[in-house]
Design brief:
The protein has 117 residues and is mainly alpha-helical. 59% of the residues lie in helices and 12% in strands.
């Protein structure tokens, strides 16, 4: 028997919340900021506090299933730049989203030395 669509979404979301608490905290905090403001997006530019948190954030953002589950749960669009910059966008934020994920923005966000940001 195939799992329902709802259970297929709940598994990654529950997994994200319980096994990647730092990543969940970052994304949910950004969603709160986005909902409280009037901008097209909210982003986090604070580096993770340690390597464990960095790993959680990278695993969350690198997984298509996790990202899709979080986008569905929060009703936002997620984006990620090098140097651990995470952003959440309102669903209609086309231009701001395209600029954020573009090559120019990625390059401008990294350090000149191309080392740990």
């Amino acid at each position: 028997m195939r799992p329902s669509a709802r259970s297929r979404v709940l598994r990654p979301r529950r997994c994200a919340r319980t096994s990647l608490p730092y990543g969940w905290e970052v994304v949910s905090g950004l969603v709160d900021r986005l909902r409280d403001g009037d901008g097209e997006f909210a982003d986090n530019q604070t580096p993770p506090p340690d390597e464990a948190a960095r790993g959680q954030l990278l695993r969350m953002m690198a997984s298509d299933a996790m990202r899709a589950a979080l986008e569905d749960h929060f009703g936002v669009r997620l984006a990620f730049q090098n140097c651990h910059r995470v952003a959440v966008f309102r669903p209609g934020a086309g231009r701001a989203y395209r600029e954020f994920i573009g090559a120019r923005a990625q390059i401008l966000n990294q350090s000149p030395e191309l080392v740990d940001c």
